[in-house]
Amino acid sequence: MGQTFSREAARRLLQISEKQLKTWEQQKLVRPSTEYGFRELLAIRTLIKLRASRVPLQQIRRAIQALIKKLRGVTDPLTELSLYADGKRIRVELEGRAMEAESGQLILNFKQGELNRMLEFRAQENPRKELDQRLEAELWFQRGLDLEASGAPAKEVIEAYEKAVALDPQSAGALVNLGTVCFNTRNYALAERYYKQATTVDPQYALAHFDLANLFDERGDRKQALEHYLTALRIAPTYADAHYNLALLYQSDNQPMKAVSHWLAYVKLDPSSQWAVIARRELDKLRAATVVRGSKA
Q1: Type and span of the H or E element at 146
Q2: What is the pTM of this model?
Q3: pLDDT at residue 41 tops 80
């Protein structure tokens, strides 16, 4: 059985209200349900895109009915076909050709024989070429987050994130979370692999560099830790946690001036947290040590 999502989880993922979903159900654009699989979520997202292009609901309904009549074997155009709005018109992509959904007319002037062949389209023989893998990957990513929040075993969490990455290798968020699960189970080698993969697919992902820096710091590789903390700050100069960890790193390396700079940055960015109390305490220590050294001189 495929992965399913509760009605609430589906609405949260697709960012639609209960009222909006009920309206589409009442108008028979989507089937009423308490659970949704990937196909149903794809159908709803297609509706969202069409409505975002201001295509009237009546026109969407007419297009769906026309496609069911014209294309043999198609029973649910929203999930079986690639529909999109072109201005106020709904078009469908078939075998690399664009066709107007309601009229069945090809956008370009092809021979009538080719049009007839396309209208004999069978969903069973020609499944939708481009399943929206990114959406499915996002769903598995959300599943991984939910499993983590519920305290599920690491194995289940990893499986969810791995499915997200298999569907979308560019999913830097899933890669970072995989790395973090491995880090927390002290599988540092695998954590490093996932973090590095995340920085490869998205070099501007500050969190990936920050987590990689934490990993190197944990393993005592201060040089690489420093490199990735600084990279995280180059990408996101207001990354408070990166300032905090850099301050600790510089302080332990006996570079007090650099440590002070990052403690000050942290306190400015996150002044009311419990960690700011620690940052101010460390600043006081460094200032006191500076005064003592100055008096001895």
Answers
A1: helix 133-149
A2: 0.63
A3: yes
